[in-house]
Amino acid sequence: MKWEDSGGRKPVGIGIDILSRKRADAFLERHRNRILERLLTVQEKERYLASGRKMSPLLFTKLFAAKEAYFKACGGDWMGIEGFGKIDIAVTRSDAFTADSDIIQPPVPGVSAGAFITHPQYVIAEVVIWQAEGAA
Amino acid sequence: MSNEIFEKIQETLAGALGIEKDEIQPESSLVNDLGAESIDFIDIIFRLEKTFDIKIPSGELFPGNILNDDRFVKDGKVTPEGLAELKAKVPYLDVDTFSNDPQVTKLSDFFTVNMVMRYIQDRLSNQAKA
């Protein structure tokens, strides 16, 4: 079996995470300020909290699960609280995202493509990191 | 003092993990015995900050940054340099026992209630000295 997409790109990392929406909602409700201060990147704050908007529990659940999925795709196990604020998630559609980080990266340079599955009780985030053009 | 700290830690962990206080013993592993996941570790850090009125800097209590450094991890195992770094940066962790089989994926098994106790005691004692 050849692990390539139609354009000949190879996956260099795959990660998946599932998070209970109830658990994430309670966490956000209890620690909203700390979460916004320490778990989000500057770009995420600009993207999702501009004009004093309040982050919805569903968006937070998606961001958290996406960060975890990306970290796993990079081969990690536990990134520590410091890792969350270093992975930038851009939700491009209600069911899709990209992830990027200057610090936490896959062994081979790549480009991420992620997807969400939203269930009334859970959010699942999965991400594939595709080998970047010219990367060995 | 340490009993009082232990009781507060029990309450904090019970609240974060949705379990009974009695289930939490000093030797309990947060992952293996109490079922903690990533979101729980962060919840625990934030709750401890509130309970003890302290700030827990990134990388101090449940460190991840050391393991993301190529110098300290090779082929899924923490290198001798990584173990030395863990000892220096996370003295509350039982690095000696972990070093018998230093697989990265097993490190979180060593995040125990005792480790949290030692960390909080140290922080409070340093605070009192300052």
What is the arithmetic mean of pLDDT of chain A? 90
As residue ranges, the low-confidence spans of chain B are none
Given the helix and strand composition of chain B, which structural class is it? mainly alpha
Task: Compute the CA-based radius of gyration of chain B.
Answer: 15 Å
Strand content of chain B: under 5%
| CATH class bucket of the largest domain in chain B | Mainly Alpha
Separation, N- and C-terminal Cα atoms of chain A: 20 Å
CATH superfamily of chain A: 4'-phosphopantetheinyl transferase domain
Molecular structure report:
The complex is a heterodimer of chains A (136) and B (130). Chain A has 136 residues and is of the alpha+beta class. Chain A has one domain (11-131): Alpha-Beta Complex (Ribosomal Protein L22, Chain A), CATH 3.90.470. Chain A has four helices and five strands, in the order E-H-H-H-H-E-E-E-E. A five-stranded antiparallel sheet of chain A has the order 1-5-4-3-2. The longest helix of chain A is centred in the first third of the chain and has 18 residues, at 21-38. Chain A is globular and about 45 Å long. Chain B folds into two domains: 1-56 and 111-130, ACP-like (Non-ribosomal Peptide Synthetase Peptidyl Carrier Protein, Chain A); 63-108, no CATH class. Chain B is built from five helices and two strands, in the order H-H-E-E-H-H-H. Chain B has helices at 2-17, 38-52, 80-89, 95-98, 113-129, and strands spanning 73-74, 77-78. The radius of gyration of chain B is 15 Å and the shape is globular. The interface between A and B is medium-sized, with 24 and 21 residues.
Which key features would you list for this structure?
heterodimer, A: 136 residues, alpha+beta, 29% strand, B: mainly alpha, Non-ribosomal Peptide Synthetase Peptidyl Carrier Protein, Chain A, two-stranded antiparallel sheet, 5 helices, 3% strand
